[in-house]
Specification:
Layout lengths: L2 E4 L2 E4 L7 H10 L9 H18 L3 H13 L4 H7 L15 H14 L3 H5 L7 H12 L1
Antiparallel strand pairs: 1-2
Amino acid sequence: MHLYLIGDQVCIGCRTYLDHEILKEILTLRSVVNYMKSKEQLIEQAYCLAFKYEAELGSCPQCVLAALNETLEVGDETTIKSADVLAGGSALSTRGTCGALVGGLLALGSLTGRTYNDFKLGKTRRRVFRYAKKIVRQFY
């Protein structure tokens, strides 16, 4: 486990959370065609890449999203950019939700979240929560 000091607070980095469970959920949603690698290999690749990014670059939500984007083609540059403010429990405060968890949830949302059109139409039935609740339960 790695702890990071942010001011006088301690943050546990995504090394402790980007586990295989969130990657399995994303793989079930994403039809990744990669004939060279098994699902287990893709999961391990994303995990190792996020771990490396956290060690070298920081910003847990960006590390998670960048690894998922590069490995599984989930998310986009705008989402990765926007996620930076959520690092360290939001604005490095350590008072909000873990940035790695947020990064994973944003990835799930990019795959199954309510579209802008559905939002404008007021549609309330959303499958994103079926997956997100599993990840949140595992985290807490």
